[in-house]
Every structure is written in C-alpha cells, then in structure tokens.
C-alpha cells in the first residue's frame, strides 16, 4: 500500500490539520516528520476545537496509530502536557503514539538560548521565531551534540553522554549568553522522568513504518509549517530550521520513496505568514486588518496576528515544483465572500524584468503583478457540493487551477469536517 503526504504550499497555517483529519479515516498510520512544538494544527469536529502541536492530529480516530518521526525535535514538557490535555478529552494518546528512537530531544536550555538570541538581535536580523528552542535543537543535531530519544533507554550511556554535552553547552550558556549553567544531575533526572513515562513508546520507527507498508498498511505523512518556510527552498533566512517539503518527509520518517504515491499540497484561497520576511502579496494597513478578522488569522501556538495577503500564483507553482504536488486542497475560500473584487498575484517583476519563477534571492524587491477576479458576495460557509457554489466562486476556483497548472481536488468551505467539497 502507498504512503501519501500532506504538505503546506505557503508559509504554514494553510489548514493542513483539517485535511489530515479528513484523510485519517482511511489511514492506518499518521506520521509527523519534522518541526517541533512551534507549530499548531487546529481541527474542528462537531463544533469543538482541538489544537495539536506535537501529537499527530489523526489521534482523534480510533483506528490510527500515530508516529513521531526521526525528523521531529521533541520537547518532553510540551509533549506530556499535550498528551494530558488530549486524554482529558477522552483520546488514548499514550497507547497510540510511537516515538522514533532517532528523534532529537529538545531540552530546556534550547528555549533559553532561542530567547536570548532573538532578544539580542538587531531589528533587521530578527527572524520572528516562536522562542520554543526549535532552531537551537536542530543546530545541536547538526553539530552532533544532541540527545536522541533512544539514548533515554540506556541510563548509564545517557549519563555519560549528557555529562559530555553539558561540558560544552554550559560554557556556551555562561560565557556567550550570560545564562546560568545547567545542572547535569537535574537534567538527567528530567530525562529519566520522561523515559519512565514514555520509554515503552520509543522504537525504531524506520523499521516499523517500512514493515507496515510492506504488509499493506496505509500511511499518511504530515509536516509542520510550509514550503515558504523550508530551510532550503523558503524565504531564507526567515524560515524554519527543517525541511517541511517532500524531501524532508522522506528523510524525517525513513519511509522509502518507492512507497510515496500522492503529494497533496494545501493552500488558502488567499495567503498568510507569521513572523518576519518578504511577502509580495501582503495587504497592508486597514485592508489587511479586515482580512485578518474575517479569516480569524491568529497563530494557533502563539496567538500572534498573521500577516495577510492575496493568493500568489508564483509561490504555489514553486511549491508544486519543489514537492511534486499532484493535487491541491484550497482552504478558507468562504472568507473571500466578503469581497466585490479579489486580486491575485499572477507574476513578479524584478528590476524591470518579468520573472517566471519564485526567486531564492531578492523576493523583498519584486513588484507583484495582479489580476482581478469578480467576487460572489454570497455566504458559502459549509457548502459541500461544487455545483451549489455561486458561479463566480466556481470561476475563481477554476481560474486558480488553470494558473497554477495543478488540479484542485478538495475545497474547504469552513472549519468542520463536513464543510468539504470533493472535486473528483
């Protein structure tokens, strides 16, 4: 059986969790393959809202097993709190979540360093991180100076490794950041406590996933953030510290590429981003505030107001190319019912020349080229049939599909599971 992938085609917050939730009913295993507690996924079921940070949102379904892949940086405190919150709603999280033994553990000092770095940055160098320590943990991973979940299963080895890591890390904390050193014994006890609670859930998930796929199980890969925040293919340096794109899904799960079938890209009918960085289609001033309020555009994790803009064709075409997207999901189209006319960015101009691609350099200096589409001015919230949409709304969807040269397979007209149009 194949593995399918859901990937963000913009700067994150596209509505991936709703799509993952919708697809989970036909899935056996859901895998979170990158990111950390800096990303929030919101699912609405029967009018009730659930917010996920580390636990895959497919946990809502009784039939699914959830896996935290090797590409994730796992914060034990946030993870245990999230498990507790979900279990209070009746979901048996700890019985259904497996953790990769190669998954890196995010430690309290990663958050302290993240806060110190962001606070000490000049305005033009601020990235706009969530200060959750994600980038610092990934940096230690690349420096080969990190703790992995599998290390927690061998107490003696963990103690030796932790002492070695903290010899170096404490010098950095004290001399460079003017922070207090970490007590090795306290950190050891902290990790042992997590191992006591979750040690039985830590396994070799690469072997597990490929074995289950070979047996015929259906796997769905889910990431955090989106293509525009990819460390390699996004708006560097205003990006996340991992690869939310298709390559990151394979590397962050260990699922063999031969199993990957459908890559489903998620995009809003407009655009948003959180934090700093270039945003060619951004709507500034009061008009941006209007769209933000209409769409409820505030971060699931931080509550930060999202910057809002119009749909950007060049960005979506870039996401299609980088990820190998063969089907798009269009979300939040109901938000646009407010508008008489809907602008769409159909291209860029850079230093007087038209660009035919999404540039890796100089995006902040491009001039967006717009086309205007007539709005429908009818409330379409909750409609679940394409034929029932107003003709101008149908025309808008068809125009976007033609512009990005990729089929739109699903349209979301609201936050609930039932507010969904299957186009095929």
Automatic annotation (TrEMBL):
It catalyses: IMP + L-aspartate + GTP = N(6)-(1,2-dicarboxyethyl)-AMP + GDP + phosphate + 2 H(+). Its main location: cytoplasm. Its EC number is 6.3.4.4. One of its GO terms (cellular component) is cytoplasm. Pathway: Purine metabolism; AMP biosynthesis via de novo pathway; AMP from IMP: step 1/2. Its cofactor is Mg(2+). The keyword Nucleotide-binding applies. GO terms for biological process: 'de novo' AMP biosynthetic process; IMP metabolic process. It is an enzyme of class 6 (ligase). It is found in: Cytoplasm. Substrate binds at residues 300-306. Mg(2+) binds at residues 13, 40. It comes from the Bacteria. Binds 1 Mg(2+) ion per subunit. Keywords: Cytoplasm, GTP-binding, Ligase, Magnesium, Metal-binding, Nucleotide-binding, Purine biosynthesis. IMP binds at residues 13-16, 38-41, 130, 144, 225, 240, 304. GO terms for molecular function: adenylosuccinate synthase activity; GTP binding; magnesium ion binding. SMART domains: Adenylsucc_synt. Homodimer. HAMAP family: Adenylosucc_synth. Belongs to the adenylosuccinate synthetase family. Plays an important role in the de novo pathway of purine nucleotide biosynthesis. Catalyzes the first committed step in the biosynthesis of AMP from IMP. This is Adenylosuccinate synthetase. It comes from Leptospira kemamanensis. The gene is purA.
